[in-house]
Amino acid sequence: MDDAKQQQPGWLVIVNPNAGNGRGKKDWQKISSLLSKYELSYQAIFTEARRHAILLANEGIKTGFRKIIVVGGDGTMNEVVNGAFAQKICPSSEITLAMITVGTGNDWGKLFGIPLNYENAIQIIKEGKHKLQDAGIVHYYHGTSRQKRYFINIAGLGFDAVVVKRTNLQKEKGRRGKTLYFYNLLRSLLLYRHTAVSVEIDGKIMHNDVFTISIGIGKFSGGGMMQTPFAIPDDGLFDITIVKKIRKGEIIRSLAMLYDGTILEHPKIEGHKGKSILIDSDPLIHVEADGESLGHSPFEFGILPQSINIIYGHLSL
């Protein structure tokens, strides 16, 4: 074993001080005291800007860390995941991720039974129950530049990406709360239109006028909505939900179906499963992944089965 692995403490703790409207910074003393109470050996480092957690995770792994605790929200977790997959030091399956949630959505944590209570979350980390989960990779465009992003929960295209972008802009201005996504969903309905989209899933091509598409490894997004209600995080498959052309009043009347897991019963909504997805559109549509606003179509999605280790309490399947 090399010296870095012998000398490094058990956990690298990456803290987003701005998560949860500043709770990452405000509650850090309480969290750090609990980490010490449960005798977890750790080294903590704070993010300083968006995407900084990608670099911190990447560098931490290079110096020998193989276990990372994320103190933040779903966006911080996504950045750490991208740092884990970007490094070439070890297979991503040798890296273990845990979470202490200080964000507002907790959609990834909800699937894996990660409580909002700090002490309960740390107890789960101490217990160390872990499993390998799938990850996704999406290739997308910024202008003519083709880029990529990894994700471990859900990617949204079309209307969902518009709502997430609006929500993220408001978060940057200091607005927070579990209802923020829902508020922006209703506001965005006023202007958004359906788009002609080509979707190819494992070689099968479909053409539809589409309102929004969700591509899920997990099933919760938007603060508890279930856009891919039957997604299983380690089955090696994406769950794909396609909402075809639909009246806005019908969308509003169907919102309860997003929360009770019955969305696929709607006649204008299709559910599919697959490993490889190609999507093009006219005009261009945008994508978000794990709540992070990215670029525009065309898109290529691929699944990375059981590719990263996570600490969990229980599975909400």
Plain-language structure description:
The structure is a single chain. This protein has 317 residues and is an alpha+beta fold. It folds into 2 domains: 3-128, 3-Layer(aba) Sandwich (Rossmann fold); 137-303, Tumour Suppressor Smad4. It has helices spanning 3-7, 19-26, 28-37, 52-62, 74-86, 107-111, 118-127, 159-172, 180-188, 248-253, 255-260, and strands spanning 11-15, 42-46, 67-72, 96-101, 130-142, 145-151, 154-158, 195-201, 204-216, 238-244, 269-274, 276-282, 286-289, 292-311. A 6-stranded antiparallel beta barrel has the order 7-9-8-12-14-13. A hairpin with a 2-residue loop joins strand 13 (286-289) and strand 14. Helix 8 packs across helix 9. It is globular, with a radius of gyration of 19 Å. Mean pLDDT is 92; it is low at 1-6.
Question: Secondary structure elements and their pairing?
Answer:
Blueprint: H1 3-7, E1 11-15, H2 19-26, H3 28-37, E2 42-46, H4 52-62, E3 67-72, H5 74-86, E4 96-101, H6 107-111, H7 118-127, E5 130-142, E6 145-151, E7 154-158, H8 159-172, H9 180-188, E8 195-201, E9 204-216, E10 238-244, H10 248-253, H11 255-260, E11 269-274, E12 276-282, E13 286-289, E14 292-311
Parallel strand pairs: 1-2, 1-3, 3-4, 4-14
Antiparallel strand pairs: 5-6, 5-14, 7-9, 7-13, 8-9, 8-12, 9-10, 10-11, 12-14, 13-14
